[in-house]
Amino acid sequence: MTIEELREDEEEGPPFQVEYEITTKPRRIALFVEPSPFAYVSGYKNRFQNFIKYLREMGDEVMVVTTHEGVPEEFHGAILVGSRSFPFPWYQQVPLSLALSPRIINEVKQFKPDIIHASSPGIMVFGALAFAKMLSVPIVMSYHTHVPVYIPRYTSSWLVQPMWLVIKFLHRAADLTLVPSAAIAKDLQQYNVAAANTIRLWNKGVDSDSFHPRFYSIEMRLRLSNGEPDRPLIVHVGRIGVEKNLDFIKSVMEKIPEARIAFVGDGPYREDLEKLFEGMPAVFTGMLQGEELSEAYASGDIFLMPSESETLGQVVLEAMSSGLPVVAARAGGVPDIIPSDQDGKTGYLFSPGDLDDCLSKFVPLLHDKGLREKVGQDARAEMEKYDWRAATRVIRNQQYNAAIWFWRKKKQELMKPLYWLAQCFLPTDTPRKLTTSGPNPQVVVHT
């Protein structure tokens, strides 16, 4: 989706020259990321790690405030601040923290950020918002976890509406909202979470060097297939949670008994899923990282993604970059990766929960090696277009500029009553006009 499509029937936004100017002056950027992009394995881990890396490469000073576990001693020269955390009651693997201890308050104040960028939703985003108001700086919130969709699977559905109210409170207070896909942007607009012109896309990216067909490994294929490398091998990579709809894969496997499935990843639903697949040709590897993960992608035949709640689907990008044909549910952010004009070329989408539709896309790939190779090659070529450096440059030089513009405009709107009072009680012969059309809104005196 283009910026123009996201801005239909919206309020005034930053002038073209403000939003698209190339900013060369280094900034001081404070990132509040929860859970940690260094320890918690999720779709946004690579996004934030590459974001930090390229912000530093572009000359910005970066402070990262995150949950305390797994914070490295050094990461591309960024200042790393760990905040004591507690486990989320319904999902113990997710650590949470408000990040408002006196120690962190002092460190952030000394850093003197020009802009604050917080991941949302969560607990730490409230702390980030408090810092933004305390220090009077713009705040950008990037939305990464579609919590309202997860709530009915982990707790009571009556909490969905209150959760939307919390999200709306947070993002209405932000100066700009970043989303990973057009589908999520539409959901946020539907629930009136933020003004349409303040919701922007954080362009997708993938490390096409780390995820590459050259990482094919017969040793890894033997491991994933439990010693049966000649059988068709289906791969799924990702967090094993009930919200990922992984039960659907069992229905698929029952229709293709000649195939094997490898689940790469871990999560709270793993034990239940292992019981569900007991006696079936399935392998659970647990968490893989680095070259092992690259090999796991590249050594399979087909990547199956039944999840209907992905804000984007980073693992789909990584699978395609690895030359692996993808069959995925047409839901969440995945159609941003495999748009309608690419469906059947760089990957396949099926109607969510529709077993027959899934099998109609899946079975021909399973039995036609030439088709698998063609789709995998086209997927790889498509992924080579996406680069984390370019995605970071857009955020830094365009989206942050827009956030600063919106922040300045808000400040000027708050000042208007004071200007009006000044004109009433301090009359002058010189007319004044408030302007907000440039990068530095101000009162202009016309003579």
Mean pLDDT across the residues is 88
Total beta strand runs? 17
Which strand order does the major sheet show?
A: 3-2-1-6-7-8-9
Largest sheet: 7 strands, parallel
Oligomer: single chain
Shape: elongated
Question: Count of helices?
Answer: 17
- Overall SS class: alpha/beta
C-alpha-based Rg, rounded: 24 Å
Strand % is: 15-25%
The portion of residues assigned to helices is 40-55%
Ends distance: 45 Å
Report the uncertain regions.
1-10, 436-447
Detailed description of the structure:
The protein is an alpha/beta fold and 447 residues long. Helices cover 42% and strands 18% of the residues. It has helices at residues 3-6, 16-19, 43-57, 102-111, 124-135, 147-154, 160-173, 182-190, 218-224, 247-255, 270-276, 290-298, 314-321, 334-337, 355-367, 369-383, 388-425, and strands at residues 28-33, 61-67, 79-83, 86-88, 91-96, 115-120, 139-143, 176-179, 199-201, 233-237, 260-264, 282-286, 302-305, 326-329, 348-350, 432-435, 442-445. The strands form 4 sheets. It has a 7-stranded parallel beta sheet, sandwiched between helices. A hairpin with a 6-residue loop joins strand 16 and strand 17 (442-445). The longest helix has 38 residues, at 388-425. Mean pLDDT is 88; it is low at 1-10 and 436-447.
Note the topology.
Elements (H helix, E strand, L loop, with lengths): L2 H4 L9 H4 L8 E6 L9 H15 L3 E7 L11 E5 L2 E3 L2 E6 L5 H10 L3 E6 L3 H12 L3 E5 L3 H8 L5 H14 L2 E4 L2 H9 L8 E3 L16 H7 L8 E5 L9 H9 L4 E5 L5 H7 L5 E5 L3 H9 L3 E4 L8 H8 L4 E4 L4 H4 L10 E3 L4 H13 L1 H15 L4 H38 L6 E4 L6 E4 L2
Parallel strand pairs: 1-2, 1-6, 2-3, 6-7, 7-8, 8-9, 10-11, 10-13, 11-12, 13-14, 14-15
Antiparallel strand pairs: 4-5, 16-17
Helix pairs in contact: 3-17, 6-7, 13-16
